[in-house]
Every structure is written in structure tokens, then in C-alpha cells.
Amino acid sequence: MEQARILLAIALSFAIFLLWELFFVERPPMPPPSEAPQQSASQEASPEAAAENAPDAAPYFPPGEVETAAAAKAAPRPAPARQVSVETPMYSAVLSESGASIRSWKLKQYREAVEPEAPPKELVGPEIEGGTVQTRWESPMPDALADARFTLASGETTVDVRDVSRSVSFTWASSDGVVVEKIYTFSPETYLVDFSLTVKNGSDRPLRNRLMLSLVSRFGDDKRVIGFQGASALVGDSVEQIDVGEVDEEDPEAGAVRWIALQHRYFLSALMPLQPVETQVLTSSPSPGIVESRFAQPGVDLAPGTQKRFEYELFFGPKSMKVLGEVGYDLDRVIDFGWFDFIAKPCLWLMNFIYRYVPNYGVAIICLTLITKIILWPLGNKSYKSMGEMKKIQPLMADIREKYKDDKKKMNQEMMALYRTYKINPMGGCLPMAAQIPVFIALYRMLYEAIELRHASFFGWINDLSAPDRLFRFGFSVPLMEPPYGIPVLTLVMGASMLLQQKMSPPPGDPSQAKIMMLMPIVFTFIFINFPSGLVLYWLVNNLFSMGQQYYTQKKLA
Asked: pTM of the predicted model, to two decimals?
């Protein structure tokens, strides 16, 4: 009731104000259409005021600016920057007269998502303002090269590269006669692009400056990414890396630069001078998620009427060992699988070798696991033999624990005496696990970053070995599970295999340790729930082979 009275009071207040405005507020009479408003002498003396009061008057310009305003009004607006589209069997690219930079680069052999109808993989994209392969002067010039409007040398806006290489040329001239020419040469069967930059000094004074060439790329904000993503450079014989999250914290790299690159999980862009250049590489983040790597070309020192040409090669494509090995420039060194890279790269080569004859990467992973198991077979035999002998003396160990349960020191002494009597190494059963840890870490990095597994199917619902396996799709989130949400069948089977393997092994002497060991399969299942299905497949198959070897070894001892 009280609220109704408040609303009624508000409505009546508005009604009173409206009636007062209509009937009691006086308004000045409107002048006849033929009459102009009266002005005071001061108003007549002010052209600004006259222009302000005139109802249809044109904007007022102070004396001396009328001609400038008229010229600006009459001057035609510049035409929009033209773009040229380049089509090759491997990619499609778009270049713009604005900065003569690359605005789009789509890989035809890779898709954005696993679905067949997904669009081609975009490496540049509209979110990168100004595109990539940007050019600027290090020191300020009368005309800014960074924002320069180049001119496309040809009127052709579509270039089809099928059988022979084709070039796209852009030219820009400053107000004082300095000319910069950028030429891209595209070839049909490679991701490499020949790129040249020519500076001509048409001015009447020496030109002393330094050119900066920039690669620009956008990175996601996923902090759970494994492996390196960010800017890298081969300086001398050392690969220098700056992670995405550390871009603004690092000093410039200096030395004989052989290439600079921006690396993602599966793809990269790179710039390589034809010969190593003693210079600097500067990295920055002009806006959130955007990383820019700048190659500082050594100083340009040109007398009037002279020119200088700089030659490079560009690469926009997959982080494939085979592809990068064919490129040269030691660009394949961008692929680094961490501490155990020396194990991971041979495993990657072996997996690809198997794939030549069995065109299914899931089967190739199974064969790779079998080969590694055969290599580690002697260590496994020794371990399982030790575990079998430990199982035989379990009753004796139980008696010692019961007899000396109140004297831990004496219990340990008797246990060691028992081991010596039966010539058993209590740590022997841990040997294959310790030997397998480096292999597991190497395969983890390799299977996570190998582009060969991106969108590679195994069977059934496992259509991407680089992503977690999910059977069905849930319309709700699941704790500890990354999207997409579904049933991680392969991971659950792997956890069950670990539990069965744990049952086959002799229990630890300490009951508390035994409880912890029984929890390990559950812990590993939760850890593996978001791992790539290729890695889960490896671990599952490895468990099955290990159980088979353990059963075989213990049967021989029985």
C-alpha cells in the first residue's frame, strides 16, 4: 500500500510540472520568417557571434584560413589501401598497401579445429593491427615509415602461384625523396618466401638510419600450456628464448643473428637473413596478447643518389621436423623437447618412420611403445625378478615386523640381514620405473608438441591424438576436467591397468606405504584426465606390456 502511494505521488508531481509548463511559463514570441533577430552593436562587431547566431550560416573561419578550408573541402579523400591476395597450393595470403605488410596467412593443409568443415588455420588474422613483416626507421624521419602508405607496383590484386614463382612489389617515397621498396616472391611448393628490402636515397643529403623489421603474432592467455611459446632467435650457436609471459622483462639479444621467430605450440613465423648479421633482436608486447620481435638491420649509410638492398627469407608454417629441416638455416632448432630432447627427437623420427608403413598414428604409438619396452627388457627382467624374490620372503618379513614392532632400529637391522641372506636388493623393483621416467618425460613433450598428432585420429571417438579423449559431450562442466567435457574412456582404462599392475606387485613392508601405493592409480587417473590421448595411449600400452613381462618373469621363477 505504501509503495502505491509513493508511485501515485510521483505521477502527480510530473503532472503538475507539465501543466505549469504549458499554461504559466511565458515564451518569447517567434519572429516572422522575413525578420532577422535584433543584434547589439557588439554582436555586429563580432563575426564569430554573427556566424553563431545565423541559423543557416556556414562555419566561420578566421581571416587567412578561408582558402585553406575551401581547399581541404575540395580535396578528394584518399582511396582505401589496396590489398593483393596470393594463392598457392599450400597457403593463401593477403598483403596490404598500408605498410606493405602481411595481413592474413591461411594454411590450406591445416584447420582451426578437428571438424572437417573447420576453416583453414590462420597465422596472422585481423586482430594483429598493422599485420606482420612491419618496417620502420629506428630514428624519427620526416615521414614515418611505420605508417607509410605504399603503392602496389602492379594493378593485379590476385596472384595465383601454381607452376612458377611470382613476385608482389610495393614502393613508398618520402617527401624528401627517400624510396623504400618491399618485394615478396612466392613459390608454389614451399612455405618459404623470398623477401627483399631496397632503400634508395633520392634526397640531396646523406641518409643515416637503421631499419627495423618486425614479426608480430597473437598468443592466447592459456597459462596451462606445456612447452615453449614466445619469441626466439638463433644468435651465434645458441637458441635464445623469451616466453610469452616474460617478454617485457628481458633485455635485447645481440650477436650474429641467423633467424628470429615467433613460436606457437604447432606453428611459427620466422625471418632469416641470407647471411648471419651482427645486430640486435628486440622483443616487446605492444598490447595484451600481442608479441613483436624486431630485427635491427645494421645501419643504412647512403650518399645521395645511391641505394642498398637487403635480402631475407620468411617462413610461415608448421613446426615439423621434416619441413624445417628442408628449409635450412638451422631453423629446425626451434623444436626443443626440453631436458630429454635427445630421447624425444629419435622417438619422433621413429614414430614417423612407422607411420610410413602403418598410416595410423595411434598404431604407430603402440609400435613405438613396444620398441621402447624391448630396449628396456633387460632392466625390466632384473626388476621383476627382484620383485618375485621379495614376494617369497613376505612371510619372513611379516614375522620380523611383528617381533620387533616396538624397536624400529632392531627391525631394520633384521630386515637388512634377511636381504643379505637371500641376496635381494630391496630397491631392485624400482629400477625400471626410474629408467622409464626420462623416456616418459621425453615422450610426454614429444606427443604434446608433435604437429603430426594434431587432429590425427586413432579409432572411434579418438579423432585427435593431441587432445584429451572424450566419449560423448556433457552440457555441464566437470571438476578437474578441461573442456570439452565427456567420459575419458582411455584414461579410465589406463587407471584400471595401473590398479591391476599394483595388485601384481608385492606390497611394501610398511603398511602406510602400501596404502599410499594403492592410491597412486587414482592419482594418476586424475592427472592424466587432461593429457593428450596419444600420451595416455602410450602409458596404457606400456602398462599392458609391463604386466605381460612381469607375469612371464614371475612364472619362470615359480
From this structure: 0.79
